[in-house]
Write a structure and sequence with these properties.
The complex is a heterodimer of chains A (about 575) and B (about 260). Chain A is mainly beta and about 575 residues long. Chain A contains five helices and 46 strands. The N terminus of chain A is likely disordered. Chain B is an all-alpha fold and about 260 residues long. Classes of the chains: A mainly beta (about 575), B mainly alpha (about 260).
Chain lengths: ~575, ~260
């Protein structure tokens, strides 16, 4: 068969009309028809950000245009191309009014709390959500369906937990129920499995909604390293394996997940510590107050085979100048100096930190009683604080001179000797330190100073959050004139400090804030529990990498741009 | 004042001069239109090749799965309608396969150089069949013009030059007749050339209205929005193929259950 394509080339007037063969013309028509449908679909925005204006949340694209108008009382971050929203809050009634109007026959407040979602906004009393006001936006800013749920959580593994008529189930990305709402409570799916509460017992379902562990437990935590904390009765926790059998018998008052083969537990006397996978303690606090007085931050999970513990200690200073740290197992508080028997001058409570290895031993040098872990291990280096007795109660540049900071590695060796007046943990290979008599500098992992220094750094600023897309925010100036700018990894100022606050860069843009004039609030504007009658409006916008404001500061709140994936 | 002896031209000769000028102008216009048409055809050919390679083959695969499904459905629930549908879908699949795997799919990108375009203009001016003096000459020119079009489309400047050289040496190109006869011939040539310019415009219009040209226009429009419409089409058809495969597997299992 001659290829009709040649007609296209050879045709001349007289035999030209249309040149394609029928099958090819038809094929082109099919492509065109399908292409038209594709073109009709609006271009999917690559990046979106949540912003609040006039008390309502909406979505903007990188040009600042609204992709979804600000009509939502709550709008969560995107996960798997979907963002949960709440678009109705019971007509804006206060909790108290709603309670009076609609729930007069209910006196069980806890029931009330369970059934509804509460909101507070900046200008009025707490509002309450309608029983069915949650759904999801797609990446075009459109609701995925008209159905509303009492509550909705983020998508995981293609499913999102939603509550419908008081029961939890799971919907797919189109908004259809994939697992019917029959559960009293659910967690999120992880690795195709989900912990659910069914008829007051806890079990595990797969992504089809079938039970892989029948509901027979009182409690089941998240699986980690093959084990999950579990209890058949309240107050007796152990660990079950993937078959649902107890690998560590229930014997603890509290049990958390395993990390690096170690888990934090409380024994029945409520002494906190770490156990190994056999259930044996490798470290345990002797007194409850050691842990509980540390602001709830006492024992952290193991990361890279190291745990950070923060415990309460007492330190005594004596008239002789000697210091004495009281260890946890000392029953009697020493009233006299053990070295020269002089009297106690004063004592203070310290929250002292330490780094533990997998055997529960401190990796800090043990000879000095005054070496203290100051922050979590970060990038392989832990920040330590060394107390210098002879500098007790003296100050340099407004900072305590009896404390200096340095960094140790994972075996407790001083990698960067304690020498800095102030320091921040390492982030992205850099730490910011205050060098005595020199000022603020940036150091690398070898302790070498990088760059020329950071002039005018706010003395109270200690939030070095590392670099995002090559930029780190810094605060300069003193209250009330602090300003935030950005530096690069060499410590050079790349965006002059000019904002009242700023978040890190994300997808090429950073959220910045400019304060408005301080103004007195009208009485109706004041939250009932607020003591202040003055307020400075915060106006959020976005800057690019040159510091140019690309989306003007016109929002009450703004979140970082997210890459929207579908 | 120098003495000049000037032969006074006859009215026929004067008219012949004017017509020759007019003919030259029309020749140039016709050559330009021929070039425009040749460019557009070649671009369409190139685009169609790309479309067939990127998307057409997927439509062929999709049609094949649809034909398989129709055939298996006809086996599961035999009826005259099912059988007819199976035959129709199979025929369509064969046609699509033939259309997408023929010569047209091999067309490559068309980027004519300035020299090539200049040679084409020259050839169109000199060889165009509209300027034939008789029927034999027209046949020769039509054949040569087809070769010119083909050489241009293939970007073959050497071939174009060769055609021009051969034409220049051919005895048919030699001029020389009486004024009256030449005038008549030129008037006819001008008339024919103008008709042809109108016909080229009509052909361009038809080509622009064709499905492939419209699709190309859509693709170009999408490109301005940084979209690759052909790639999007391919993804879309691939998804439909995946669906059809699943459907076919389900039907095949059903057929197996029935022991057929």
């Amino acid at each position: 068969m001659a290829d009709n394509h040649d007609l296209l080339i050879l045709s001349n007037r007289g035999d030209s009309s249309i040149v394609l063969s029928e099958p090819r013309s038809s094929l082109a028509a099919r492509g065109r028809s399908d292409a038209s449908a594709l073109l009709a679909r609006r271009r999917e925005p690559a990046y979106l950000a949540r912003v609040k204006i006039n008390g309502k949340w909406g979505l903007i694209d990188t040009t600042g245009d609204f992709v979804a108008e600000p009509v939502f009382y709550d709008l969560r971050a995107f996960h798997e191309g979907r963002a949960a929203f709440c678009d109705w809050v019971g007509g804006g009634k206060s909790i108290e009014q709603y309670y009076k109007d609609d729930l007069t026959n209910r006196d069980d407040y806890s029931w009330f709390v369970k059934q509804y979602t509460f909101f507070t906004n900046d200008y009025g009393p707490a509002l309450i959500a309608d029983p069915c006001s949650w759904s999801f936006l797609d990446s075009f800013g459109k609701a995925i369906s008209d159905i509303r749920f009492e509550f909705a959580r983020e998508f995981r593994d293609g499913l999102a937990a939603v509550r419908f008529h008081g029961k939890w189930g799971f919907i797919d990305r189109s908004g259809e129920f994939s697992i019917n709402p029959i559960f009293d409570g659910v967690r999120d799916f992880q690795h195709g499995l989900c912990v659910v509460l069914f008829e007051e017992k806890v079990g595990v379902i797969n992504s089809k909604g079938d039970f892989v562990l029948q509901p027979r437990l009182h409690y089941l935590g998240e699986y980690s390293e093959g084990l999950a904390p579990a209890a058949e009765v309240a107050g007796r926790y152990g660990y079950i394996d993937s078959n649902g059998s107890f690998a560590i018998e229930p014997q603890f008052a509290r049990a958390d997940g395993f990390h690096c083969g170690r888990a934090r537990v409380n024994d029945l006397a409520n002494h906190v510590g770490y156990i190994n996978t056999l259930g044996d303690f490798i470290y345990q606090c002797k007194k409850i107050e050691e842990y509980t007085s540390a602001g709830g931050m006492g024992l952290k999970d193991f990361v890279n085979d190291i745990a950070f513990v923060k415990l309460r200690r007492k330190i005594y200073t004596h008239e002789c100048g000697h210091l004495r740290l009281v260890s946890s197992d000392e029953g009697e508080e020493p009233r006299v100096c053990l070295e020269c028997s002089s009297c106690t001058h004063e004592f203070c409570d310290l929250i002292r930190g330490s780094f533990l290895d997998l055997e529960g031993h401190s990796i800090l040098e043990s000879q000095s009683h005054f070496l203290n872990a100051a922050a979590l291990f970060s990038e392989g280096l832990g920040m330590v604080e060394l107390t210098i007795p002879e500098n007790w109660h003296t100050f340099v540049d407004g900072y305590p001179a009896w404390k200096v900071y340095g960094f140790v590695d994972a075996i407790g060796q001083a990698k960067i000797a304690p020498q800095f007046v102030k320091a921040t943990p390492f982030k992205d290979g850099r730490a910011v330190v205050l060098v005595k008599g020199v000022g603020w500098r940036m150091i690398n992992r070898n302790g070498d100073i990088v760059g020329e220094g950071i002039p005018g750094l706010n003395p109270n600023w200690m939030e070095f959050n590392g670099f995002n897309e090559g930029y780190a925010s810094i605060m300069v100036g003193a209250y009330p004139n602090e300003k935030v700018g950005f530096i690069d990894s060499e410590g050079r100022t790349v965006i002059e400090p000019q904002f009242d606050s700023a978040d890190g860069f994300a997808n090429g843009l950073a959220v910045v804030c400019k304060f408005g004039e301080e103004r007195q609030l009208e009485l109706t504007d004041i939250r009932e529990n607020s003591a202040s009658t003055y307020r400075r409006d915060r106006n959020y916008g976005y800057i690019d990498g040159t510091g140019r404001v690309v989306i003007p500061c016109r929002f009450e709140e703004a979140r970082a741009f997210q890459q929207v994936t579908t | 004042m120098p003495l000049e002896i000037v032969r006074k031209q006859t009215p026929e000769e004067e008219e012949l001069l004017r017509k020759r000028e007019e003919l030259a102008s029309v020749r140039a216009a016709l050559a330009e239109r021929e070039l425009e048409l040749a460019d557009f055809r070649a671009q369409l050919k190139s685009f169609e090749g790309r479309y067939l390679r990127q998307v057409g083959v997927l439509y062929a695969e999709l049609d094949d799965w649809e034909a398989k499904i129709a055939e298996i459905e006809a086996s599961l629930k035999p009826s005259a309608t099912a059988s007819q549908r199976a035959q129709e879908t199979r025929k369509r699949a064969e046609e699509t396969h033939e259309a997408t795997h023929g010569e047209a799919s091999k067309a490559r990108d068309f980027q004519p150089s300035a020299d090539l375009r200049s040679l084409f203009r020259e050839a169109a001016k000199r060889i165009h069949p509209d300027f034939a003096k008789d029927e034999a000459d027209r046949e020769l020119r039509t054949r040569l013009m087809a070769q010119v079009n083909a050489a241009y489309c293939q970007g073959d400047a050497d071939a174009l030059q060769r055609i021009l050289d051969e034409f220049g040496n051919s005895p048919e190109s030699v001029q020389g007749e009486g004024v009256g006869a030449e005038l008549v011939r030129i008037i006819r040539q001008i008339h024919q050339a103008r008709k042809n310019i109108a016909a080229i415009d009509q052909e361009l219009e038809s080509l622009r209205a064709s499905e492939i040209a419209q699709l190309r226009q859509d693709v170009e429009k999408a490109e301005k929005e940084e979209r690759d419409l052909l790639a999007e089409l391919a993804v879309s058809v691939q998804a439909r193929i995946a669906d059809e495969k699943k459907r076919y597997d389900g039907l095949a299992m059903e057929l197996k259950k029935h022991g057929r």
